[in-house]
Amino acid sequence: MLCLGLRSAGFSQSLEEYLKVAAENNPELKAYFNDYLAALEKVPQAGALPDPELSMGFFIQPMERFMGNQQADIQLMQMFPWFGILKTQKDEAGKMALARYELFQEAKYRLYYQVKSSWYQLYKLEEEIRITKENLDILRQYERLALIRFQTSGTQAGPASGSSTRPEASSMSSNSPVPSTASMGGMSAGVSSSTSGKTGSKTGSSMGTSASMSGGGSGMTDVLRVRIQIKELENTLALLEDSRQPIKAEFNLWLNRDPNEQINIADSLSASLVSWERQVLLDSITQNNPMLKMLDAEEQVYEVQKKMSLLEGRPMLGAGVNYMPFTPRPDNGMNMAGNDMVMPMVKLTIPIYRKKYNALQKEAELKQLAVQQRKENTVNQLTTQWYAALRDLEDARRRTKLYSEQTDLARQTLSLLMTSYATDGRDFEDVLAVQQQLLDYQLKLITSIIDQHITIAGLENLAATELN
User: Fold this and answer.
1) Contact 288, 464 (CB under 8 A)
2) pLDDT tier for residue 183 given thresholds of 50, 70 and 90
3) Low complexity bias located where (predicted)?
């Protein structure tokens, strides 16, 4: 069984509403739907009889006939196709409309995928901005902590006795604005400073001078290091915030609305597992994919056309009437005034030129073969995409687990390093390196979660169904 599906607790309804708006407003999707409606209108056209033919001829000089003078010749004829042709033509038009409908379905699910993908990318961007801001705040707290240690190291080096050093250390540990892990280390720093203060009172001012040279220099280096990272992170944050508008505009334009319109984004995405057997999922794709259904409809169209080529080689029948009006004509002192003549007529076409009908039959067979080959190729492509999507989904799942564990380990490491730094001022470079790793793991964790959502949206697009 393959575990598929990521859903958020509180965004589904909002996203479903966006999909509904996109389906109603997207101009490309409406164009495909109108193409389908236009194809439906061909069905009654294909099932209609040919128009009746009316021909009228009037004599400028009446034609003298035995029964009188003929004034005109009027014919009305209706042709009738061979039995079954009209029904077959309607069937062909219906299959062509079905192919148009499957094109509309393919466009709809492609639009759904694009809307979901844009929505997930916007959520990812907002999370990256939030995480970057949080890490920027933490780095600024590190900067204040490094400044306090730098100032404290200088103050400790000044007085010769340890009694004046202890209040400074106590003030740093209780009042400095540092993260929770650092404040625990700050308490340890106060104890360590008190101890070092007592030792300093015994060793004299020479030890204070040495502390000033070593601790002060390294403290200022720590401040500069953290400021470098702050500058880099501020630049990254500015780039992320500049990226918000293009993604927002793209999402709104899929819905065919104002690019600046507000978009509701979920507070968090939580995973919920949906179990799908691999082969069942592949069967769903090969049975429900709109492109395959469209090719199936085209294959049926050409099957009908093969039947049509046989029927078109049959005669067409026509039935009508010929009406000839007469006026009296004097002849040898007698008025020849015959009645108007009405003559029923029958017409029959004789399809004796068989080459074109044989060619129609061959054309339909070759087109049907081409569609079958195209369908086979499409199945191969969909299967390849299915394998790739499963690989990407499994990779995203592994990365989510990995970066979640790495994030926890980085936080634990950072807590220990902050305690060590707050105690004796060492390993500040390691603190910054681990903080950068933590930021990297947090961003990669968000990326892996979004990759799972987008991959599942792609599978839903292939299968033309919701994987829930």
Assistant:
1) yes
2) very low
3) 169-213
pLDDT in tens, 227-281: 999 999 999 999 999 999 999 999 999 999 999 999 998 888 766 555 668 888 8
pTM: 0.78
CATH number of the structural domain 2-463: 1.20.1600.10
Tokens standing for 249? 């505009």
Degrees to nearest 5, angle at CA 394 with 392 and 396: 65
Tell me the β-bridge partners of 75.
Answer: 55, 322
Q: Residue ranges per domain, the chain?
A: 2-463
- Give CA separation, 354 vs 130, 290, 319, 350, in Å: 76, 38, 25, 11
Alpha helices (runs of H) in 26-62, residue ranges in sequence order = 27-40, 42-46
In whole angstroms, what is the distance from residue 453 CA to residue 458 CA? 9
Return the residue matching tokens 């056209």: 45
CB atoms near residue 108 (< 10 Å) = 20
Exposed, middle or buried: residue 391 (CB in 10 Å: 0-12, 13-18, 19+)? exposed
Lowest-pLDDT range of 95-104, 187-196, 405-414? 187-196
Spatial separation of the C-alpha atoms in residues 5 and 239, rounded to whole Å? 31
Q: Is the distance from CB of 181 to CB of 419 less than 8 angstroms?
A: yes
- Cβ atoms of 253 and 111 closer than 8 Å: no
CA atoms of 79 and 54, how far apart (whole Å):
12
- C-beta separation of 269 from 10 below 8 A: no
